[in-house]
Design brief:
Layout lengths: L3 E2 L2 H10 L6 E7 L14 H7 L7 E3 L5 E3 L2 E8 L2 E6 L13 H11 L7 H4 L4 E6 L2 E5 L7 H4 L8 H6 L16 H4 L7 E7 L3 E6 L11 E8 L3 H10 L4 E3 L6 H6 L3 E16 L20 H10 L2 H8 L5 E2 L23 H10 L7 E7 L6 H13 L4 E7 L1 H8 L9 E6 L7 H8 L19 H12 L3 H17 L4 E13 L2 E2 L14 E2 L1
Parallel strand pairs: 1-13, 2-11, 2-12, 15-16
Antiparallel strand pairs: 3-4, 5-6, 6-8, 7-8, 9-10, 10-11, 12-18, 13-17, 13-18, 14-18, 19-20
Helix pairs in contact: 10-12, 15-16, 16-17
């Protein structure tokens, strides 16, 4: 069997071992489209991962997932609340204009604009101070020893280009901001330039011949095509119409094994898939229960987690390829604790009793929001969960939509329009502070945390811990606080962790690449023979 399930380091070695061959065009497909070209328009891994080939930040992770300088040659914490970034000289944007400190300051401000979905990053920064054209200080409200880790997805935009094209405000993707020039056009400093963009059809990139850095691959042109249907996407790979396709449903791995010239490529992903519920509103938006919110009752949340069998989902939906989870972080994430990763056993009988004790002996009805083209087997997971909940009397109406409609409905810009939902999360910093502050902290407070806490779960102690974790330099104390936050969230069933999904790619045997544990495809490391 050709299936390659490899550790990341080994895969990286494979990707870099091949000597660059002749320059080639690389074609690849994903189940959904890139949602915008605006680097500040949407906080979503696939979109940000695509954009990182065009735009760059002050820091970047290399092929070994090490954090290194990108547009910043070096950086240092010169005062408890001040980080100084020494910017790289001689860098040009794709239109030929110079990259300078003014562009960094402008991009920080743009992150906070009304249409931006990147406010979780903007909230880390109190102010900027330009020292000279190639030196800038980023000032935080409190000491933040992990700030560079949090800035990898902060991409720099050319101030003059944005002003020229009236794109000084970030694109409001969920508001249908087609009029913002940055939504369909791009001008970064990265290794590839945007050649053409047809939303929902095809996006073409070409090599940036003036790139300041080193491109270790041989790709000169890259063509991305969204292909929604799993079978069509896999067929495109087998036929040679694309060189790489993802995700490949785990049930199709054998299909690739049996085909010539292609292979499935799998490995552990640092993404946790979980369920969440609206615990904030006094009445659910989508339920037959009026005048109160069942999810405010801990017993109901406990019933749900006991009713959902993650081992069955692993076996029947994920074909054994997922790793059941008890936390919102994967083992690859700094701060993960194996001791806290257990979960309540599957027990429908106990779940029914908990519902009855909470006053719902016959269950209730609720609508579940689910993407159908974002995560591996996402709609099938939701269908399985709905079926399991039906056994305890909960009737779930499943609303599965393409990711653009799904995210447009459930995120902050639409006032978290959901009662019950599935979501996946990979901490961009590979540190537990990220999900604690973004997913678990109370939202809407002065600390501006909880931006992606869709269900409004709230325990103020977690907000206190998030602030302490961000500034604590003693790793033993820091881990103790991380453990406390996860235990509170676990005991209160703030969300229902399901599993870490597998990386599930299909590739041509002519292609050598790096399969990152965050499911990001970096074109600069691709060689095609």
């Amino acid at each position: 069997m050709k299936l390659r399930i490899t550790a990341f380091a080994a895969m990286a070695a494979i990707g870099l071992a091949a000597a660059p061959a002749k320059a080639e065009t690389f074609k690849w497909a994903f189940q959904g489209d890139v949602q915008t070209m605006d680097p500040h328009g949407l906080f979503e891994t696939m979109t940000l991962g695509f954009q990182r080939n065009i735009y760059e930040g002050l820091v970047i992770r290399n092929e070994k997932m090490e954090m290194v300088g990108a547009l910043a040659e070096s950086y240092k914490n010169i005062e408890p609340t001040v980080w100084r970034f020494n910017l790289r000289k001689g860098v040009k944007f794709h239109d030929g204009s110079d990259f300078e400190a003014d562009d960094v300051a402008f991009s920080v401000k743009r992150l906070s604009s009304e249409g931006s979905d990147m406010k979780v990053v903007a909230n880390l920064i109190k102010a900027t101070k330009i020292i000279d054209n190639h030196t800038i200080d980023i000032i935080t409200a409190a000491p933040n020893p992990i700030l560079p880790l949090q800035l990898e997805i902060f991409y720099i935009m050319d101030k003059q280009w944005a002003e020229k094209h009236k794109a000084v405000e970030a694109t409001n993707v969920k508001g249908g901001d087609e009029g913002n020039y940055a939504n369909l056009n791009a001008n970064g400093t990265g290794p590839f330039k945007l050649k053409s963009r047809q939303s929902g059809v095809k996006t073409e990139l070409e090599i940036n011949s003036n790139y300041w850095g080193k491109v270790k691959g041989n790709i000169k042109k890259a063509v991305f095509t969204p292909i929604a249907q799993d079978a069509t996407r896999v067929a495109a790979l087998i036929s040679g119409n694309v060189d790489m396709a993802y995700p490949v449903p785990v049930q199709d791995w054998k299909r690739l094994d049996d085909a010539k010239g292609v292979m499935p490529l799998a490995g552990p992903e640092a993404r946790t898939i979980f369920l969440g519920f609206d615990q904030l509103r006094d009445e659910l938006l989508y339920s037959n229960i009026k005048g109160k919110n069942p999810f405010k009752d801990l017993r109901v949340r406990q019933a749900f987690i006991k009713a959902i069998g993650v081992e069955a989902i692993k076996k029947k939906v994920m074909r054994g390829a997922s790793v059941p989870a008890g936390l919102l972080v994967a083992p690859q994430i700094n701060g993960y604790s194996a001791a806290l990763n257990d979960r309540p056993s599957y027990d429908p009988k106990a779940a029914k009793k908990l519902l009855a004790d909470a006053g719902y002996p016959n269950g209730f009805e609720v609508t579940m929001d689910c993407p159908n083209d974002r995560y591996v087997n996402d709609e099938r997971i939701c269908q399985a969960a709905a079926s399991m909940l039906a056994k305890i009397g909960v009737k779930v109406t499943l609303l599965a939509q393409t990711k653009s409609k799904y995210f447009g409905k459930v995120l902050a810009q639409n006032n978290y329009d959901t009662s019950f939902f599935l979501l996946g999360w990979t901490p961009s910093t590979f540190d537990s502070h990220n999900p604690i502050s973004a997913l678990m902290a109370c939202r809407g407070g002065a600390d501006k945390l909880g931006a992606f806490n869709l269900g409004g779960y709230c325990n103020p102690r977690i907000n206190e811990l998030a602030a302490l974790i961000q500034s604590e330099t003693n790793q033993t104390k820091r881990q103790s606080m991380i453990d406390e936050a996860f235990k509170i969230h676990k005991d209160e069933v703030g969300h229902i962790p399901l599993h870490q999904q597998p990386l599930s790619w299909g590739v041509s045997e002519k292609v050598k690449l790096v399969q990152r544990p965050d499911n990001v495809l970096d074109l600069r490391y691709i060689n095609k023979n």
